[in-house]
TrEMBL record:
Protein origin, superkingdom: Eukaryota
Family matches, as SUPFAM superfamilies: Periplasmic binding protein-like I
Protein name: Glutamate receptor 2.7
Residues covered by the Receptor ligand binding region domain: 11-342
Keywords: Membrane, Receptor, Transmembrane, Transmembrane helix
Keyword Transmembrane: yes
Localization per Swiss-Prot or TrEMBL: Membrane
CC annotations in GO: membrane
Pfam families with a match to the protein in the record: ANF_receptor
Keyword hit for Cell inner membrane: no
Amino acid sequence: MGSWEGKVVHSCIKMAVSDFYSRYRTRVQLHFRDTGADSLLATAAAIDLLENVEVVAIIVPTITNKELFLAKLSDTANVPLLSFSSISASDIEHPYFFQVAEDETAQFHAIASFFRASKWTNCAILYEDTADARRVQSYLYDILHESRVNVASQIAISPKATDDKMIVRELHKLKSSVIVVHMSPSLASQTLVHAKKLGMMSKGYAWIMTSKAMNSLDLHDSLIHESMEGVIGFRSLPLFYASTKSRGFALRWRKELIRLYEPDTEIKELNVVGVQAYDAVWALADAIERAEMKPQKKKVQVKVLDLGRLWISNSGAALSSEISRSKFIGLGGEFLENEYGRPMK
């Protein structure tokens, strides 16, 4: 796994399997694919796993609305697809797709409450110019509007913005000193660095950052930490980070990371995605045991791809039903189904 997030997910998945099956004689067989956050490679990997390996479930850390073709594949093959992405549950119509994360729009109500408590009535929204972010940003606008907060400006910045002047130009368009930032970690940190240079992080300004960035930002990075000073951040799984259990798990996780990779691997903070990966695998393993699934003896073979005759799992319906019934206290807190019949945190 090349990326830092890939290493986190890989190590936490391995730990979850080891911890869960410490009391069982059998265990699930893992098949990892590193797609480098490439949508086309992710689709190709999913097809390979379904058709040639005949896996009983697939876990995808992140998935966008454009990539929900993966969910259609899972529906066709009757194979559960679990993801940590915070896609709005109301947009999901795939019976085999499971969102193992809280709908990211839920935090917007907390942000609106914070505005009311602070007696702020005006703000600007700074968001990443992608289809998913634009859709979610509209929810944020509506929720703030319902709380009688005037959104003076909504500024989109391209995720491919490499020109410093481009970011600075967009920052100058902000028409409020209270700014809500809904961006990926890399773009958010880049934007805050420029905002600080412009004097927009000084007294009189208020910056609020959503979990889209906060869940994965490395706050131990000195440059990020310095630019984040004074920023109010909303992050998922606050109970995990406040618990004593988190410290013990983080220590074990660091040892596992060093074991899997090089001893001199740069180790950053354990992020939310790692915790979600651990709980997702635990839920899946538990569901497999409750569904009383039998070990598969099939060997991996390469077939000629035919999407019209995709392999269909005989155990998928039973496994999907058991995943929907998942309810336990996981590493990140209570893990249970929501009103859509989907497990979430």
